[in-house]
Design a protein that fits this description.
The complex is a heterodimer of chains A (308) and B (265). Chain A has 308 residues and is an all-alpha fold. Chain A is 75% helix and 0% strand. In chain A, α1 packs across α11 and α5 crosses α10. Chain B is α/β, with parallel strands linked by helices and 265 residues long. The longest helix of chain B has 16 residues. Classes of the chains: A mainly alpha (308), B alpha/beta (265). At the A-B interface, α8 and α9 of A face α3, α4 and α6 of B. Bound molecules: adenosine-5'-triphosphate and magnesium ion (MG). The site of adenosine-5'-triphosphate has 11 residues of chain B, from α1. Adenosine-5'-triphosphate (ATP) binds next to α1 of chain B.
């Protein structure tokens, strides 16, 4: 256990922060039936990264994150535009936008001679939690040592900042987010500016997705946007408890998944470990499955009817 | 031929700054089809006003356009002489059909609490007095016992009453209701009428889109007749007359069988 701090602490922190940030935003996406947006953003990251590489000529995390974020924001804007102008439902708008942007990214990649970034694109899409080794983390006391803290992988700080921003946004604009998700017409009449907060939520989703991708990969992000909030919805009929359940499920998935990935195979007698991000996604899926089977508010126990 | 009592404001006349709602020359179109043409009308302060007209007459459109929910092609709208933006705290609106997700994790009480949005201001979360106010609003519409029920598990009429309670919680000077009696039973309708009369007796202005021609005279003291335009507006006794109704409904009072193209003059 002596190398826990060096090898496992930062991956667990990053996994947990990513899971929390995704789940927090995911609650509102699930309420608005827009959870696919996480998937959409994961496709849109590609043209952003390629464009960033073409513009700067370097393969570095900051320009790539910036490019991915801009691309994700453009995509979120386009999705809103297609929804309004075309009057189509959100799922269809997302489908149109993210497949075309993904195709644009592939075209850009193939025609620009930027294929050298290919590996990094893959890394951005798959992430690699296990690589977040804290070389200076020689024990718990390192947490108090400034020089050791300076060697913490930068993804850790980035995700902690993102989590802080998301938390602040949700707490500060809770009423606006809830009103806009539940009844946009009413929200507009009382001046809760639903269109503005809709855009802000999309922006935040894009930022969370991009930063979480870098650290934990797209599979985990897509799972974390959907699974904890969806499972939490099956536990309660009220929103605040739902958000609390989703956060608990997010932590459980991140920590449980990481531990299982690292030690599960050993317990089963295998030598190597499995991908932590993958295992975290699996655990979140299992939690959702359990909630579907045993959640007190699962479908069938509540009516879905609209009034005549 | 028509009585002069129902003379409407000139489209170019100034907005009535004492009226809770004043509309001049309002035209609203969906794509290129005008749903409301050159409507000019004043809602009198302290009145209980019905908006009456056949399906597709533009009644809902008039309300939505006044509330900035849909764009206006032309015209001016004022609430007490001010734009809606500046007056929204004094206005409540109950739409014809709340387009909400009935599966949403919210109880009846949660929905009514949303009516206190403006009042809560910087206090982010509902305090005890907000909850008491919301419970009182629910009790007024006879929903006190169902306050903690998830909204999807209420009947259609009960859901409608929750939205009425949310408007009550807003404590507005002007309440606009789009068909508050659609799909509710006689007892519920009577309960809602009582609530509206109480509000009106307290000096609040009520405007309701209403389809039941039989009960207009007994509930409302003023009427706005609509058929793609404002046909007439004024005191019920002067406006709710056979000839004006004929002008509104095109001679056929069988509202539900009105043909698509026969709506607009
Ligand atoms: N979203 C829309 N898009 C296109 N046309 C619309 C839309 N909403 C309403 N209309 C058209 O505008 C006209 C007025 O509609 P509106 O809903 O205002 O009528 P209404 O008087 O409220 O009718 P009802 O009594 O049936 O509620 C109708 O011809 C309708 O078909
Ligand atoms: Mg209508």
């Amino acid at each position: 256990m002596s190398d826990f701090v060096m090898l496992s602490l930062m991956p667990m922190v990053v996994g947990t922060a990513a899971a929390l940030a995704c789940a927090l935003v995911g609650n509102f996406l699930v309420l608005r039936r827009q959870s696919l947006i996480g998937d959409a953003v994961s496709h849109v990251v590609l043209p952003g990264i390629v464009a960033a590489f073409l513009l700067t000529g370097v393969v570095a995390p900051i320009p790539m994150l910036a490019g991915a974020t801009v691309a994700a924001i453009v995509a979120a804007g386009l999705i809103a535009l297609v929804r309004r102008a075309g009057g189509v439902e959100p799922g269809a708008a997302m489908g149109v936008v993210f497949t075309s942007l993904f195709a644009a990214g592939v075209l850009l990649l193939e025609t620009s001679g930027a294929r050298s970034v290919h590996l990094d694109v893959e890394h951005a899409l798959l992430g690699n939690l296990e690589s977040l080794i804290w070389f200076e983390g020689l024990g718990w006391s390192a947490l108090l040592d400034p020089s050791a803290l300076a060697a913490v992988p930068p993804q850790v700080w980035r995700l902690i900042v993102v989590l802080a921003i998301v938390s602040a946004f949700v707490v500060l604009f809770w009423k606006e987010l809830v009103l806009g998700s539940f009844d946009p017409v009413f929200a507009a009449t009382v001046g809760a500016r639903p269109a503005l907060f809709d855009a802000a939520l999309m922006l935040l989703t894009a930022v969370v997705a991009v930063f979480a991708f870098e650290a934990v990969g797209s599979i985990l992000v897509v799972a974390m946007f959907v699974c904890p909030p969806a499972a939490a919805r099956l536990m309660t009929d009220r929103l605040v408890p739902q958000v609390m359940w989703s956060l608990a499920f997010a932590v459980l998935s991140a920590v449980g998944g990481y531990v299982l990935a690292g030690y599960g195979p050993l317990w089963l007698g295998y030598q190597s470990s499995v991908s932590a991000a993958g295992m975290i996604a699996v655990v979140s899926g299992l939690i959702l499955a359990a909630a579907c089977v045993a959640g007190p508010r699962r479908k069938g126990t509540r009516s879905i009817g609209a009034p005549a | 031929m028509l009585k002069r009592a129902s003379v409407l404001p000139e489209p170019t006349s100034p907005l009535d700054v004492s009226a809770p709602l004043s509309v001049r020359n309002l035209t609203v179109a969906y794509q290129d089809m005008p749903a409301v043409s050159a409507a000019s009308v004043d809602v009198q302060a302290g009145s209980l006003t019905a908006i009456v007209g056949p399906n597709g007459a533009g009644k809902s459109t008039l309300l939505k356009a006044a509330l900035d929910l849909i764009p206006r092609r032309e015209g001016r709208v004022a609430f007490w002489g001010r734009p809606f933006k500046a007056a929204r705290r004094r206005v409540a609106y109950v739409p014809q059909r709340a387009a909400v997700d009935w599966d949403f994790p919210a109880t009846a009480l949660d929905v009514v609490l949303m009516g206190l949005y403006a009042e809560m201001g910087l206090v982010r979360f509902a305090r005890r007095r907000h909850k008491e106010k919301a419970r009182a609003a629910l009790a007024r519409v006879g929903m006190g016992d169902l306050a903690d029920r998830q909204i999807g598990r209420l009947s259609g009429g009960q859901q409608q009453r929750v939205f009425l309670a949310r408007a009550l919680a807003q404590d507005a000077d002007l309440t606009l209701l789009d068909e508050p009696f659609a799909g509710v039973d006689a007892a519920t309708e009577a309960a809602i009428v009582d609530v509206l009369r109480d509000l009106n007796a307290a000096g609040r202005t009520i405007v309701a889109v209403h389809h039941d021609l039989g009960s207009v005279t007994s509930i409302f003291d003023r009427v706005i007749l609509m058929a793609g335009r404002v046909v007439a507006a004024g005191p019920t006794a002067e406006v709710f007359t056979p000839d004006l109704l004929e002008a509104t409904y095109g001679g056929r009072l069988a509202v539900e069988t009105f043909p698509e193209e026969g709506r607009r003059p």
